[in-house]
């Protein structure tokens, strides 16, 4: 099976590498073409433009940084729309808002193509090990056709119905994740400043009802101020912003998420945007306490 892959950031690179390792022929494109070199060394071919990739492949997957990048790859010169046509499918696995996803879907289908949104839950390590959770919505036939690829990329794929539902589910998940990371950060600092060993806190949390892989995986690195990016903080803040906008549309009060978003914005202003989203911990540590 031959697939196109647009976008070779932290996630896209790992995902396309997995496809190659599992026998897929992959044609890759990235705005900075030098990022394709490692994939080429593992057998990938390179498309010079998104249109070039779509022309050569029946199914093209995109994994891009934000709504602006997702729209640009489709609508700009030499973009997806120039070659999408009847019989070709486009799967956008980027995390975007439902409005962006719907706009892309309408453009693709107007040219006769099939569209599926399929954002993922999971960051760098699950992408590398094929353990992502795929949240798909849109054309059911394209979903069925993509199952062999999804089985390589993820541990579970959900089909959620109409376009927009995948985007909404991903934003809800990331909103909860960002809010949890802020509460966790405050708890670790509170433990330390009140005279407790934060490592003991991690052990206690891991044995209780709120034990979860995020605390277990991120906690020890946070205590060492190690924020090697699995999921960049600037993208987490973008998702908080989009989730809050979804809350506005549906008249859902979200004070906890709003406060978390402010903390991520503060972290970005401190120059932490390219670090892992757990670097929001630094915003709590930076608040000097009075004796």
In words, what does this structure look like?
It contains 13 helices and nine strands. It has 291 residues and is α/β, with parallel strands linked by helices. Strands 1, 2, 3, 4, 5, 6, 7, 8 and 9 form a nine-stranded mixed sheet that branches. Helix 1 links the parallel strand 1 (2-6) and strand 2 (25-29). The protein is globular. The chain starts with a strand and ends in a 6-residue tail after the last helix. The mean pLDDT is 97.
Task: Annotate the secondary structure layout.
Layout: E1 2-6, H1 10-21, E2 25-29, H2 37-41, E3 45-46, H3 50-56, E4 59-62, H4 67-75, E5 89-92, H5 98-110, E6 114-117, E7 120-121, H6 124-129, E8 132-138, H7 140-153, E9 154-159, H8 165-193, H9 198-206, H10 213-223, H11 233-249, H12 255-269, H13 281-285
Parallel strand pairs: 1-2, 1-4, 2-3, 4-5, 5-6, 8-9
Antiparallel strand pairs: 6-8, 7-8
Short description:
By secondary structure, the protein is of the alpha/beta class.
The major beta sheet can be summarized as: 9 strands, mixed
In total, the number of strands is 9
Uncertain residue segments = none
**Overall body shape:** globular
Terminal-residue CA separation: 64 Å
- Could you tell me the strand content as a percent range? 5-15%
Portion of residues in helices? 40-55%
Radius of gyration: 20 Å
SSE sequence, one letter per element: EHEHEHEHEHEEHEHEHHHHHH
Helix count equals 13
Look at the structure and give the mean pLDDT. Answer: 97
The secondary-structure class comes to alpha/beta
């Amino acid at each position: 099976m031959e697939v196109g892959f647009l976008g070779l950031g932290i996630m896209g690179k790992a995902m396309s590498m997995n496809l190659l390792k599992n026998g897929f022929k992959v044609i890759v494109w990235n705005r900075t073409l030098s990022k394709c070199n490692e994939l080429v060394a593992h057998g990938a071919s390179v498309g010079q433009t998104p249109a070039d990739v779509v022309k050569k492949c029946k199914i093209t997957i995109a994994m891009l940084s934000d709504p602006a990048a997702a729209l640009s790859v489709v609508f700009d010169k030499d973009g997806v729309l120039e070659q999408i046509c009847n019989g070709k499918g486009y799967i956008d696995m980027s995390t975007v808002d439902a409005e962006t996803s719907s706009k892309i879907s309408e453009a693709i289908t107007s040219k006769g193509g099939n569209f599926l949104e399929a954002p993922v839950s999971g960051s760098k390590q699950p992408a590398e090990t094929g353990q992502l959770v795929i949240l798909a919505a849109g054309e059911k036939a394209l979903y069925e056709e993509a199952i062999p690829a999804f089985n390589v990329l993820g541990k579970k794929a959900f089909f959620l119905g109409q376009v927009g539902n995948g985007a909404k589910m991903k934003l809800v998940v990331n909103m909860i994740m960002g809010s949890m990371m802020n509460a966790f950060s405050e708890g670790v600092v509170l433990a330390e400043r009140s005279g407790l060993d934060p490592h003991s806190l991690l052990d206690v949390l891991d044995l209780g009802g709120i034990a979860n892989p995020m605390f277990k995986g991120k906690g020890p690195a946070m205590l060492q101020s190690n924020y090697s990016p699995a999921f960049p903080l600037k993208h987490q803040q973008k998702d908080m912003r989009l989730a809050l906008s979804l809350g506005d549309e549906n008249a859902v009060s979200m004070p906890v998420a709003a406060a978390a978003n402010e903390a991520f914005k503060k972290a970005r202003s401190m120059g932490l945007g390219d670090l892992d989203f757990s670097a929001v911990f630094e915003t709590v540590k930076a608040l000097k306490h009075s004796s």
